[in-house]
From TrEMBL:
Family matches, as SMART domains: REC, Trans_reg_C
SUPFAM superfamilies linked: CheY-like
This protein's GO CC annotations: cytosol; protein-DNA complex
Sequence ranges assigned to domain Response regulatory in this UniProt record: 7-120
Modified residues (4-aspartylphosphate): 56
Source organism of this protein record: Ferroacidibacillus organovorans
Subcellular location field: Cytoplasm
Name assigned to this protein: Transcriptional regulatory protein KdpE
UniProt GO BP: positive regulation of DNA-templated transcription
Keywords linked to the UniProt accession: Cytoplasm, DNA-binding, Phosphoprotein, Transcription, Transcription regulation, Two-component regulatory system
Length: 238
């Protein structure tokens, strides 16, 4: 597992810690998602299936050990525990309950990043497919998009959005799901305009007629769908 595409969920109630980690994790090529409570962290872990979790033990609602225990009931995702507690017994308990590693606050950012790299290397590598839809090819391994055999230059967000859509081709992806996958943001009301803007960018770069899209379809009030019928339409016109 390389930095690109690795999804990290940070469960920590300290906004300053989340902000620090978000800036640095994104700068190193990771996609970071965040939660400020134990209950929400468990929910996001189950919905998003991150590649690694950073978990603070001192959460305001559900004790960190309980969060760890619940996630371990169904997932083997690497979990790095953050704690202000120097108690050795506390750390032993976390490891016994399924934590893979721990870092004591305040921590050195370089050390945490090194530990993240170590645990991501333990994740079995999966072959990324090359997806073809008519005259559009998306090479997920190379992060390469070709349209009419010409490379299309996409921004990181445009690429991430297209990647989610093509991975779920034929399926309606809700606004909430896309915001979670690309931005790590659950606030549909405040962030859906960003989604519309970037969908518009993709249509301008990929559609024959952006005003009448045949590739990325809008499901009014619900979300967007990357249509698998696009390939059939292309072949029929050829």
């Amino acid at each position: 597992m390389t930095a690109h595409g690795a999804r990290i969920l940070v469960i920590d109630d300290e906004k300053s810690i989340r902000r620090l980690l978000k800036v640095n994790l994104q700068a190193h090529g990771y996609a970071m998602f965040e939660s400020e409570s134990g209950a929400d962290g468990i929910l996001k872990a189950s919905e998003m299936r991150p590649d690694l979790i950073i978990l603070d033990l001192g959460l305001p609602d559900v004790e960190g050990h309980q969060v760890l225990k619940q996630i371990r009931e169904w997932s083997h995702v690497p979990i790095i525990v953050l704690t202000v507690r120097e108690d050795v017994e506390e750390k032993i308990a976390a490891l016994d309950q399924g934590a893979d590693d721990f870092v004591t606050k305040p921590f050195a950012l370089g050390e945490l990043l090194a530990r993240i790299r170590v645990w991501l290397r333990h994740i079995p590598k999966q072959e990324e497919p090359v997806l073809t839809f008519g005259d559009l090819t998306v090479d997920l391994a190379q992060r390469l998009v070709l349209h009419h055999q010409q490379q299309v230059k996409l921004t990181p967000i445009e690429y991430d959005l297209l990647k989610v859509l093509v991975r779920h081709a034929g399926r309606v992806m809700t606004h909430r799901q896309l915001l979670q996958e690309v931005w790590g943001n659950y606030n549909v009301d405040e962030s859906s305009h960003y989604l519309r803007i970037y969908i518009g960018h993709l249509r301008k770069k990929l559609e024959r007629d952006p005003a009448r899209p045949s590739l990325i379809l809008t499901e009014p009030g619900v979300g967007y769908r990357f249509t698998v019928a696009y390939e059939e339409e292309t072949n029929a016109k050829d």
